[in-house]
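Hi Prof. W.,

I finally got the Ependymin prediction working! I wasn't sure whether to trim anything, so I left the full sequence exactly as given:
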Amino acid sequence: MYAAFTLFFFMCLTASSHADHHQPCHSPNMTGILSVMSLKGEMKAYGAFTYDSMGKKLRFRSNESSPTNASHSMDLLMFFEEGIFYEIESKNQSCVKKTLHCSMHPLDIPDDATFSSNVHSGSASIEGEGLQLNVWTGSMPDKKGHYSMYVTKGCLPTSTFYFTESTSFFFSIMEIENEIKDPDLLAVPHFCVGQPVEETPEGTVNSFLNEFV
Ligand SMILES: *[C@@H]1O[C@H](CO)[C@@H](O)[C@H](O)[C@H]1NC(C)=O
Ligand SMILES: *[C@@H]1O[C@H](CO)[C@@H](O)[C@H](O)[C@H]1NC(C)=O
Ligand SMILES: *[C@@H]1O[C@H](CO)[C@@H](O)[C@H](O)[C@H]1NC(C)=O
Ligand SMILES: *[C@@H]1O[C@H](CO)[C@@H](O)[C@H](O)[C@H]1NC(C)=O
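And this is what came out:
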């Protein structure tokens, strides 16, 4: 289901980045689990992701067999550098190729993010019961909202919040492994090769976030 309601789109124009003394880190290649929840408490999606940090590619497949009652079933392959993405339907071997208007996503800190603080989750004094996190914040590209990202010292994302006037989301990232376990997941499926880019209706902004609206 890729229903989208124009009213609630996150506006997403290209953000201007400026040089700063505190440069955000960039997450490494990763495999893990991503859960997406609206801050009204609706579980939007839950599933496995594969992320190529250098190639800026992301595959996310929500898992319908998980017991979370996620409202969105999806399989996305995003190419942030090329500015395109695929909505994949493996069941009937179909796919839709679209232009990506915004490269913001919850696994990587935008270059123009601001360092906010260092927090110690859990306990700082009990061995093995704490996690030191760096918090990075910034505005949404249209300035009508902001985000907050919590990453480990080694730049593994743990959670990201997006707050906007119309809707807010919480992305939780779990069970990260520091490698791409199945590189094939980042390749365009054979049944999508040669697919034309679908026209985007006027006023629609395609982004990873907007897939969950
Ligand atoms: C990340 O994965 C890509 C694609 O498999 C690979 O080309 C690159 O060397 C990997 N980077 C690291 C640091 O392992
Ligand atoms: C979905 O979840 C089930 C149970 O946790 C797991 O066995 C399966 O591998 C998962 N599938 C995908 C595509 O992540
Ligand atoms: C899942 O959704 C069904 C139907 O809406 C509901 O009856 C059930 O309690 C939900 N389960 C969980 C774990 O939220
Ligand atoms: C494949 O399935 C999806 C979702 O059920 C549907 O929207 C789409 O039209 C189907 N495509 C083809 C080519 O049958």
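Residues 28-212 form a domain with the outer membrane lipoprotein receptor (LolB), chain A fold (CATH 2.50.20.10). Does that look reasonable to you?

Thanks,
D.
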